[in-house]
Amino acid sequence: MSVKEIEEESLQRLLEKVQVNIRLSRPVLKVLKATAEYMDVSFASLMEGIAVLSLDGQRAFTPDVMKQIERFKEIYGMNAMGDALERAIDEATKAKGQAKPGER
């Protein structure tokens, strides 16, 4: 096998797509779908972009897109979810005696 063939095979493995089944709250899903539509990308591309950039420690959105996301969050009732989620994480981590994510 040549170096070029090995490189092409490696690239194919990197680009291989798999289907996953995830559960999201309805407001989160609506905000993400609206954001994908606003950015003119597919929902899957948006999710992959968020994941890749986040794992690299980068921001996934420009300030202009973040302003639009804030509007979507208000429209779809996601703002109230943040506080409830934070409380749920606090309670769960206290019950297990662990630090909250990002506090290690």
Characterization of this structure:
The chain is mainly α and 104 residues long. The chain has a domain at 26-96. The chain has helices at 3-15, 26-39, 43-55, 63-75, 79-96. Helix 2 (26-39) packs across helix 3 (43-55). The longest helix is centred in the last third of the chain and has 18 residues, at 79-96. The model has no long low-confidence stretch (mean pLDDT 85).
List the topology elements.
Blueprint: H1 3-15, H2 26-39, H3 43-55, H4 63-75, H5 79-96
Helix pairs in contact: 2-3, 2-4
Task: Pick out its properties.
104 residues; mainly alpha; extended
Strand content: under 5%
Tell me the series of helices and strands, N- to C-terminal.
Answer: HHHHH
Q: Largest sheet, described in full?
A: none
- The count of helical stretches stands at 5
Our Rg estimate from Cα atoms comes to 18 Å
The average pLDDT score comes to 85
Helix content: 55-70%
**What would the principal axes of the Cα set say about the shape?**
extended
Helix/strand/pairing category: mainly alpha
Low confidence ranges: none
Amino-to-carboxy terminus distance: 46 Å
How many beta-strand elements? 0
Give a brief outline of the structure.
This protein has helices at 3-15, 26-39, 43-55, 63-75, 79-96. With 104 residues, the protein is mostly helical.
